[in-house]
Amino acid sequence: MKDFSEKIIFEKANDWIENNQKVALATVIQTWGSSPLEVGSRMIINENGNFLGSVSGGCVESKVIEECISLIKNNKISQIIDFKVSNENAWEVGLACGGDISIYIEQITQ
Amino acid sequence: MKIKTLQEILKYKSSKKEFAILTNLKNGDSEIFIPNKILKGEFSKYLDEIEIIYKSNKNGILENDKIFIQTCKNPIKVIIVGAVHIAEYLIDYAKSLNFEIIIIDPRGFFTSKEKFPDTKIINKWPNEAFNEIETNSKTALIALTHDPKIDDPALQYALKNKFFYIGALGSKKTHEKRCLRLIEAGFKNEEIKLINGPIGIKLGGKSQSEIALSIVAQLVSEKYKN
Fold it and tell me: Are the Cβ atoms of B59 and A13 closer than 8 angstroms?
């Protein structure tokens, strides 16, 4: 169960869309080990890189924003991004807490 | 997600309706689930599993690795009796903790809109006020007036309706007297023990904001019991 500030996040997404901005939604869909935020945590990102909400304790947000912007640019529907301590990203944006996390990103479309 | 789904989410959230957001992780489809709703396409195949997760208030991916469900249930209702200074701090904390606050206080001069701009205030005696509030075992009561005329009826109501958290401000002595009054009113010792009095966990703080913090901390810890 997750509700904190979620309404604000969806309202902001709606505002951006009404202002003709393209918006992507990122959701934590799975976690393993000690990860900072629970499954269901959400973040929205617009085409300019503005964002609201979070999907980790700040460890992977920059990478998620980057991926969301390219999702919007390439006009893709959705994608799953896995962050694992063992993968290459770990040096750049790995989870300092040692957990793994799976994030689903999707475009909000007509 | 389609804009239409996003707007449906906002509509349900504004009207305080409980629902779940279903996402097909393989093809990007999403749909809103509410109990007894007929689901479309692939979602309909997994209705049983979706219902189980929804009922357990959880979020997660179904066994098929394909469908993600996020349940959106209403926040816990916290009824504060007494529009006193501590209540102002409680409201501040509650905002970020996803509690819905309702204040009851029959004393008009306490309940100014300026002090509590976005909070529902019922300017009536507890017994009347409770007629206007839907409560259940997910409701909490925080009694802050330490005036028996106001606190006691609210505490009695909360005990009878099995609120998951009941707390009452006041010293040990005040609480002992309160317990005696409740026994006289016909409540059993086991029931009265459910009242957290003196309210709050031990932080050592004495200021109003610190007392509010200790109350909120106790409320959160009770939320995660069971």
Answer: no
CA distance A69 to chain B (A): 16
B-chain residues within 8 Å CB-CB of A38? Answer: 59
What pLDDT does residue A95 have?
A: 56
Determine the residue of chain A that is closest to B20 in CA distance: A1
Considering the domain architecture, whether residues B57 and B119 belong to the same structural domain is answered as no
ipTM strictly over 0.90?
A: no
Same domain, yes or no: B106 and B162: yes
- Among B72, B98, B133, the domain boundary falls at B72
B25 touches chain A (CB under 8 A): yes
Cβ distance A13 to B6 less than 8 Å, yes or no, reads yes
Q: Does position A98 have pLDDT exceeding 90, yes or no?
A: no
In SS3 terms, chain B reads as CEHHHHHHHHHHHHCCCCEEEEEECCCCCEEEECCCCCCCHHHHHHHHHHHHHHHCCCEEECCCCCEEEEEECCCEEEEEECCCHHHHHHHHHHHHHCEEEEEECCCHHHCCCCCCCCCEEECCCHHHHHHHCCCCCCEEEEECCCCHHHHHHHHHHHHHCCCCEEEECCCHHHHHHHHHHHHHCCCCHHHHCCEECCCCCCCCCCCHHHHHHHHHHHHHHHHCCC
Last residue of a domain, which of B72, B104, B124? Answer: B72
Q: Using 50, 70 and 90 to split pLDDT, how confident is the model at A3? A: very low
Considering the domain architecture, whether residues B62 and B83 belong to the same structural domain is answered as no
Question: Do B25 and B120 fall into the same domain?
Answer: no
> Are B101 and B185 members of one domain?
yes
| B64 and B125 part of one domain | no
Interface contact A108-B3, CB threshold 8 A: yes
Give the count of domains, chain B.
2
Domain at B211, CATH number: 3.40.50.720
Boundaries of domain holding B8: 3-72
What's the pLDDT tens digit per position in A14-63?
Answer: 999 999 999 999 999 998 877 777 899 999 999 999 999 998 877 788 89
B72 contacts in chain A (CB < 8 Å): 2-3, 6
